[in-house]
Amino acid sequence: MNDTLTLDHGLFGQLRKDAKCDWHAYTHHPFVQALGAGSLAREKFQNFLIQDYLFLIQYARAYALLAYKQDNPADMQAALDTALFLLNGELKLHVKYCASWGIDEARMAAAPESLELLAYTRFVLECGQSGDALDLLVALAPCIVGYAEIGADLAMKSHPGNPYQDWINTYTGPDYLASVNQAIRGIDALGHRKGAAARYATLLKIFRTATQLEAAFWNTGWHYLQST
Fold first, then answer.
1. How far apart are CA 53 and CA 49, in angstroms?
2. Check whether domain 10-219 has CATH 1.10.3720.10, yes or no
3. How confident is the model at residue 228 (pLDDT cuts 50, 70, 90)?
4. Do residues 27 and 149 touch, judged by C-beta distance below 8 A?
5. Phi, psi at residue 6, to the nearest 5°?
6. How many other C-beta atoms lie within 10 A of the C-beta of residue 207?
7. pLDDT, tens only, 61-108
8. Cβ neighbours for 198, distance < 8 A, ≥ 6 positions apart
9. How far is C-alpha 173 from the chain's CA centre?
10. Full-model pTM
11. Which positions are annotated as active-site residues?
């Protein structure tokens, strides 16, 4: 499997190009830059990790909804597989990683969802509930693809001894990049079947909003010290 990102082609590439200002604000947020520099305050990162735990639960719900919205067994199975991986794999890995930062699962589970998290995840779920599978995939795309682009950028900027290097490495490995490219291809394939060209303006609006909400989600960590 090619582990090179293919960001500039197809439906996703066009969406990313047409939302370039929002995309840049998301992928170059001050929180992200501080991660790469290793200068992010520990407490900010810890609060982000707590909110990210809560996010993964809602993300799994979105993929379960995607399975319902798909109209053929192969796509249904792929969406279910992703939902199960998020619950049985990614969530457990996240809990283990958070433990290394002094955060246990009970603390994360008891934490309230931030306003940024509520706005973002409920927007994605609403796209799936009121729209079809393509609407939902487009709303999900900024998360999975954006983290890969961020990881690649930070990997070039990070320095030895960066306390956040393990986090950066998570989004630069071949398995993650393969899943990103698979998601991009999935959007293109579904777009052909679901008439993306005729509804592009609506899809772009969804993509831009989801990207803006992704950027806002970084604030769950970035503004933590100022709000406590």
1. 6
2. no
3. very low
4. yes
5. -120, 85
6. 25
7. 999 999 999 999 999 999 999 999 999 999 999 999 999 999 999 999
8. none
9. 16
10. 0.93
11. 143, 214
